[in-house]
Amino acid sequence: MPYVAKWTKVNWTMCRWRLPPPSLGSPTSTVKSKRAANEVKRRAPIYKYWNLDEKAKKFRCGFGKCRQTYAETNSSSMLTAHTKSCHLTEWEKADGRTTNSTSSKSAAVAKAFQPVDPKLSPKEQQAIDDRFKRLITELAQALNRLCEVPSRFTLKACLCADFEKYRQKVKAELANVPGRISLTLDPWTSVAQEGYLGLTAHWVTSEFELRELLLGFVSLPAEHTGEVLKEEVMSILRDYGIAHKTFAWTMDGAANMKAFFNDMKPDFN
């Protein structure tokens, strides 16, 4: 019996590397996977303004009489670059935007998804972005070789859209809170000397259940003065429409927090 066990173990060790790769499924599932990958890839808003010629496998510009085409395999960043350079005015008009003004909603969403580190040069930031994209692509294709990783512009557009939906849901929930809302806040500095502020809301529902939610996690300048804290906190409270519903505040006893509280008193009185 020991000999048989040893023989089985040795043969498994020798043969396990010769096993065929795991099947990706039936032809039907493969087609569905390709279709799903293309749908994810084309979620960027820019695709609304480009027409796909499935026979020629090309995207055709949908603005005016423009004849610009790009291969179906091109990313959304290529289509965006052409649209910005040749049809910026028409694009902004069709998208409900203006060149010199930005709505508070889009400004808040863009601020929450700022990808640029101010301490890095554009060249350094681009090098990090390229390396990160290669790593993500290699990981995704190792898990599923049919996966097509979208560009960072597409991912940002999808994340911003999902974030805005969640933000509106939170605003609606806070607007229906029957009583007052208490807040907890704490600023701190990381080991990299970067400042952050966390603001959490606490309230009791109509079913007498205690709820809490992180309202904001924002970066701060080097000096956490009372004026800076007031500006950031009031911006978050006004954004969620609860500045008039606050009740109790919980914070530490640092000097800047005392200055912050004194600066906040006139706004609530």
TrEMBL record:
<keyword id="KW-0539">Nucleus</keyword>
<dbReference type="GO" id="GO:0005634">
    <property type="term" value="C:nucleus"/>
</dbReference>
<protein>
    <recommendedName>
        <fullName>BED-type domain-containing protein</fullName>
    </recommendedName>
</protein>
<keyword id="KW-0862">Zinc</keyword>
<keyword id="KW-0479">Metal-binding</keyword>
<keyword id="KW-0863">Zinc-finger</keyword>
<dbReference type="InterPro" id="IPR012337">
    <property type="entry name" value="RNaseH-like_sf"/>
</dbReference>
<dbReference type="InterPro" id="IPR052035">
    <property type="entry name" value="ZnF_BED_domain_contain"/>
</dbReference>
<dbReference type="GO" id="GO:0008270">
    <property type="term" value="F:zinc ion binding"/>
</dbReference>
